[in-house]
Automatic annotation (TrEMBL), chain A:
Domain Histidine kinase/HSP90-like ATPase: 34-133
Protein name: Anti-sigma regulatory factor
InterPro entries: HATPase_C_sf, HATPase_dom
SUPFAM superfamilies: ATPase domain of HSP90 chaperone/DNA topoisomerase II/histidine kinase
UniProt-listed SMART domains: HATPase_c
UniProt organism field: Planobispora longispora
Signal peptide: none
Automatic annotation (TrEMBL), chain B:
Protein name: Polyvinylalcohol dehydrogenase
Organism: Planobispora longispora
Keywords: Phosphoprotein
Domain STAS stretches: 153-264
Keyword Phosphoprotein among record annotations: yes
Entry keyword annotation includes Phosphoprotein: yes
Length: 133, 287
């Protein structure tokens, strides 16, 4: 896959599809087995967040390059209610749903770069990148 | 209904009666050619004769189309099960149009041709009906299979007296976890087991949802007085779980199913003693 692909998130089966797709691209980028599993898990968390809290969204999977390394970038976006307090949302164990409260904060630790933008009432955009070592 | 259409309709009905043998023969040939010569593939014989009679009854004054619909629905369902494509299935019905057109053309009268247009519309309706029934049958098959897969993918096996195991494979969603949990708890009761091993070797990724499902299953088993061991935690999964920050608390986890079995056996007081030669003796400690 050379061009970025964009997948919809509208149900649990989409989360499974996204995991499979991310796994395929992660292998292509040359991520180690541990890093593959980490980015796949992060994709699963972020996609499920979009599904549970925003009722759905989109994920863009692309291969990126900096000067020395290749990497995998995921952009998860939704048009949901947004996150009113981002710092609070990134605290371990904090949840407004009934999960463990580790999805967002844990995903941040699973990846190398993490960028979260959210406007209450408009939606949330999360970009994460994992670089091959 | 206007007079010319009525006349055309009567003419077609007459032709259908007079040339029954010829139409049936041609229909069989045409349907065979349309579905790539597979009309009788896999014993899926089409009851051309019966359908033809039912069609004629439905055209008649009684307008009783229920027999015909029943026959067509049976045909679509059996073809869907046998893996025919929707086009192959609908083409069986559409083949009749061509066969009837041949006799209408041979007749040559304007009534017959006008009647054919009317007849053609009716056959189209029946073809679409076949198509719809086919799609419904396929959907039914898919949902049945999904259900079967759910059942298949969650065996609970007895490893030892008092020890049961659930080898989990694939994605753990809420529905599957529910089935796994129910089966495991049921099996604990049935076998009177006090130890359960949940093996996640076949689970590709453990995210917070999967972890939460696992934790709940373990707690439920504990409430019933059984201890759970989670096994099959591969290095990459261990890494991910730690990074995510999931805590398994005092739940025993093992790298392999063998380790988990050894642990459960130790807990239940079974000891393996290496005997001389190739014999393995098993001794249970008295409490």
């Amino acid at each position: 896959m050379t061009s970025p692909s964009e997948l919809p998130i509208s149900g649990n089966s989409d989360v499974v599809l996204i995991r499979q797709q991310v796994r395929t691209v992660a292998v292509e980028v040359g991520l180690s087995l541990v890093d593959q599993t980490k980015i796949v898990t992060a994709a699963s968390e972020l996609a499920r967040n979009a599904l549970v809290y925003a009722g759905g969204g989109r994920v863009r999977i692309e291969i990126v390059h900096n000067n020395v390394r290749a990497g995998l970038r995921l952009t998860v976006s939704d048009d949901g209610p947004g996150i009113p307090d981002i710092d609070q949302a990134l605290v371990d164990g904090w949840t407004t749903g009934n999960g463990l409260g580790l999805g967002l904060s844990g995903s941040r630790r699973l990846v190398d770069e993490f960028d979260l933008r959210s406007v209450p009432g408009e939606g949330t955009l999360i970009t994460v990148t994992k670089w091959a070592r | 209904m206007t007079v010319p259409v009525d006349a055309g309709r009567r003419r077609i009905e007459e032709l259908l009666e007079q040339h029954e043998g010829q139409v049936l023969r041609r229909w069989f040939e045409i349907a065979g050619a349309m579905s790539g010569g597979h009309v009788d593939r896999g014993g899926a014989a089409v009851p051309f004769g019966e359908i033809y009679q039912a069609l004629r009854r439905s055209l008649g004054d009684s307008h009783d189309g229920s027999d015909l619909r029943g026959l067509l629905a049976d045909l679509s369902r059996s073809r869907a099960r046998q893996g025919f494509t929707p086009s192959e299935t609908a083409n069986v019905v559409f083949g009749l149009k061509e066969a009837v057109y041949e006799i209408a053309e041979a007749d040559g009268s304007p009534e017959a041709l006008r009647g054919f247009v009317w007849f053609s519309r009716i056959v189209d309706d029946h073809g679409l009906f076949t198509f719809e029934t086919y799609a419904a049958a396929r959907e039914r098959i898919i949902s049945d299979q999904a259900e079967q897969l759910l059942e298949l993918s969650t065996p609970v096996v007895k490893l030892w007296e008092g020890i049961v195991a659930v080898p989990l494979i694939g994605t753990l969603d809420s529905a599957r976890t529910q089935v796994v949990m129910e089966k495991l708890l049921q099996m604990l009761v049935e076998t009177g087991s006090e130890h359960a091993v949940i093996d996640i070797t076949g689970v590709p990724a453990v995210d917070t949802q999967v972890a939460q499902h696992l934790l709940k299953t373990v707690v439920a088993a504990r409430l019933m007085g059984a201890e759970c061991v989670i096994s099959g935690i591969r290095p990459q999964i261990a890494h991910t779980i730690v990074t995510l920050g999931i805590e398994f608390g005092d739940i025993v986890t093992k790298a392999s199913l063998a380790d988990a079995l050894a642990h459960a056996l130790r807990q239940s007081g079974v000891e393996f003693v290496k005997g001389r030669g190739r014999r393995v003796t098993v001794r249970t400690e008295e409490n």
